[in-house]
Amino acid sequence: MPKIIDHDQRRREIVAVAKKLIIQGGFEAATMRSIVTEAGFANGALKRYFPSKDSIVAATFQSVLAEMNERTGEHDPSLDPKEALRHDIEATLPLDTYRIDSARVLLALWEHSVANEDLASLYRDHLREWRRRLAERIAEARGKGEPADASAVTTLAGEVIGMSIGANVTCVMFPDGALIPEHRAYVDRLMTNIVG
């Protein structure tokens, strides 16, 4: 009886290997050859799942962004709006080893996306959706009856996104988590600024 192969699982395994290699050695470390070797595939087997390095990069980028979206969406529905906003902000920050590693992957992929319009478009769409969801959370948490597209709300959403991206960039230089207390303190100040 032939062995049944879960092709989606194989794709996830390949993406996990690509992430691991990027974390260890940057974007250049994730070559087709190194991915094949690390994943334990025969030469040529990788192309069945991903025809090029760009396709692996795109899948890896999507995977990291999807994880962030999952973290922001997985909160207790009984949280009050302020607690839900704090949860969503903290979910995008490098507050543990796993998210610091994810930031390393994102940083490498951001750089690559500058020269790849498909990846750049993917990330721009992610930023737009992130800003939209965040503005909704902020408007709800402020409790002033403001619409999510009010100038004050969208400005605050932009500040949160800028802080999060900055935290993800700087944490790459401090992979030991030394900046985690600083990031947590900034969330406290940000929450005070947003909701008083």
UniProtKB/TrEMBL annotation:
InterPro entries: BetI_C, Homeodomain-like_sf, HTH-type_TetR-like_transc_reg, HTH_TetR, Tet_transcr_reg_TetR-rel_C_sf. It comes from the Bacteria. It holds the Pfam family TetR_N. Keywords: DNA-binding, Repressor, Transcription, Transcription regulation. Gene3D superfamilies: Tetracycline Repressor, domain 2. This is TetR/AcrR family transcriptional regulator. Residues 8-68 form the HTH tetR-type domain.
